[in-house]
Each structure stands twice: as structure tokens, then as C-alpha cells.
Amino acid sequence: MVGRGSTERPDPSAGTFFFEGQAAHLLAVLGLCALMYFACSLPGCTEGVWLGISTTGWLLCTIGNAILHQTYVWVCWRLELQNHWFTRRFGKHAFILYAVPFFAFLILRVALAFALGWSNRGTLGISPQLGGAVSILLLFPAIYLMVSIRRFFGFTRAAGIDHFDEKVRSVGLVRKGIFRWSPNAMYVFGFLLLWVPGFLFQSTAALVAAGFGHAYIWVHYYCTEKPDMRRIYGHIAP
Prior knowledge:
The chain is mainly α. It has one domain. It contains nine helices and two strands; from the N terminus they run αββαααααααα. It has a two-stranded antiparallel sheet. It is globular and about 50 Å long. The N terminus is likely disordered.
């Protein structure tokens, strides 16, 4: 989420807002899935098994979880923005009821990336030393992001509390920590974590899945979050 400092209120009157951007979202995810299908023909991409589940199975779980996660966010955010569906039913507990599945999906996203990488380990033609070095380099901005969110932004804002709590909307744009470099630091730097298993385990499939996940989060930004920010704050987010 991108912090803003306006007192503009969302206009929930247009019923079509629920689906705004979602035709493009659907086309984008279908296109990304098609690319994934062709990427599976890369050498070693479907090799391996772990816990009795094939690499293909782990790959499908990884992609499926990402799609479910971002679809869940779209539905919840739009229901709340359009007619306060959650807060009218659950009051002060509305955000936490939304946030628990949100963070469960997010944690599972990372866990599945590592499971996929381990299942498909050793299929990428690089040395373990190079893979380890690249993994460490990718971890630094991801860790810095977590520290910056905790100190300057807040994990509730990262999950979209401004859709549920109007008081949060008066907080200004965060320009501290890693957010000095990008207002969308969570998408630019946070999703570098998904690339770590591919290099750490030298896994072709994990890198393919990381490419899907990192591209797909930008689909979420342009198709869901950016229209929401325009409706909440009255102007287009960068």
C-alpha cells in the first residue's frame, strides 16, 4: 500500500467500481499463466519431488496461492470501499478478520517458494557458491524493507487498513527508510525474497515462479490498488 495525506473520502456510489481494472487483471493473469506453461519446457523445470509432491505440483500450488491471495485482496478491498461490507457486519473487528487470511496467504507465498526450490534443487546451471552469493544480495533489501515497514510504515498499513479505517488516511506519504527510494518499495524490493529460493537451491522452477509472482504483484498494483488509491485519496498514486 502507498501512504497518502488527503482527507478525500471514497465515492462508493458507482456500482461498477467493484470490477474496475479487473478485466485487465484477468487478461494479465491468463497471459502470465500461458507464459508459465511455456516456461515449464525449460530444461529441468519440472524435475524433482519433495514430500511426495512433484515439482509440478509445488509449482501449481505456488501460482494458485498467489492468484487466490490477490483475488482475495481485490474482493475484500472493493467490498469495503464500496459499501463498508466488513465494518457494517463486524465493527472494530473487521480489519483483523480480513488481515488474518491476508497474512496467512502472504506467509504461505514465501513458504511455497522455498518448498518449490527445494523440490527442484540443482536444476539451474550455476554453482552453489554463486547461487548463495546472489541469495544474500537479494536478502539485504528484503530485510531492510521489513525493518522500514515496522519502524515507519506499519504492517497494518501494508495490508490495507486505509480501506477500513478513515483515520489512517490522514497519515502522510512515508519517505523514510527504504521508502526514500520508492513509494512502492514493497513491490520493488519485498518481492525480491521470492527469487531467493531459485538461486539458493539452484532451481529453475523457483526462478520461473518468482518471475510470475513479481510480475503479478504489479498487475495487482495497476488493476486494483491504484484505482483504490484514486478513489480513497482523490488522485492517482505514482
